[in-house]
Amino acid sequence: MQVYPINFTAQTKYKKTNINPKSQNTTPVKDGLSTAAAWFSFGVGLDYVSRHYGNFTKSPMKNSLLLNGIIGAGAGIFTGTKALLSRNRD
């Protein structure tokens, strides 16, 4: 019986990198603002659709803008902080 040597060089060939090519072109502020805008737009749009095409809500538009602004700001701050921390780690 013949025993063949184990070659470990193949493992270093497939080394995993954590660099996302998309994240190199964006900043944490841009990520946070785009996330905040997306959440705000989705919330206001959903409120508009539910107000005009269904009788789900009777709240005024001011409440929708305020509530979705708070949700959007929270999501934007969370995403920006997460992007900033992950950028500092690399």
What does this structure look like?
The chain is mainly α and 90 residues long. It has helices at 9-13, 28-53, 61-89. The longest helix is centred in the last third of the chain and has 29 residues, at 61-89. The relative contact order is 0.17. The model has no long low-confidence stretch (mean pLDDT 81).
Poorly predicted sequence stretches spanning 5 or more consecutive residues: none
Helix and strand content put the structural class at mainly alpha
C-alpha-based Rg, rounded: 23 Å
Percent range for β-strand residues: under 5%
What do the pLDDT scores average to?
A: 81
What is the count of β-strands? Answer: 0
List keywords for this structure.
single chain, 90 residues, mainly alpha, 3 helices, elongated
SSE order and pairing:
Elements: H1 9-13, H2 28-53, H3 61-89
Quick overview:
The protein has helices at residues 9-13, 28-53, 61-89. The protein has 90 residues and is an all-alpha fold.
